[in-house]
Amino acid sequence: MIGRLFLAIYKTPELEEFIKSKLMKKISRVKKPMFITKLSLLKIDTGTAGPFITNPRLKDLTVNGDCTVEADVEYTGNFRLEVGATARIDLGKRLGAREVEMVLAVTVKRVQGHALARLKPPPSNRIWFAFEKMPDLDLA
């Protein structure tokens, strides 16, 4: 069922816009040094595959609807993210200030670990997702 859900939203503009809006919200909260004048999300590539979820177990379910689920998660889909930054560097009176454009690209090649998902009771639509301990992570 999760595989079908993934295939339904995979590579859609709606998924990319959803990811972009969530990441831009996080980036806007980051404290940046004074010389960084602008941070922006340049490109998102959702990769070539979805996550594999195995050994799902219901960890907790309360009467009011609070639900916690645990599972083993493995992802090898090459999710890629490019973040752009503009830095203002002052080189003194002779050369003056310069603006430098920088790009940071990160590719998530592999993530594997034991994860928890927590769903709050209605009317909330929030889902928290976290790993119990630091997952095995391969970035490029």
Task: Write up this protein.
This protein is an alpha+beta fold and 140 residues long. The chain contains three helices and seven strands; from the N terminus they run H-H-E-E-E-E-H-E-E-E. The chain has helices at 2-9, 13-29, 92-95, and strands at residues 36-45, 52-61, 67-75, 79-90, 97-119, 127-131, 136-139. Strands 1, 2, 3, 4, 5, 6 and 7 form a seven-stranded antiparallel beta sheet that branches. The longest helix has 17 residues, at 13-29. 2% of the residues are buried. The model has no long low-confidence stretch (mean pLDDT 89).
What's the short version?
The protein has 3 helices and 7 strands; from the N terminus they run H-H-E-E-E-E-H-E-E-E.
Residue ranges: pLDDT <50 for 5 or more in a row?
none
Strand content: over 45%
State the separation between the terminal residues, measured CA to CA: 30 Å
Instruction: Please state the structural category.
Output: alpha+beta
Describe the global form.
elongated
Rg on CA atoms, Å? 20 Å
Mean of pLDDT? 89
H/E element order: HHEEEEHEEE
The amount of helix comes to 10-25%
- Biggest sheet features: 7 strands, antiparallel
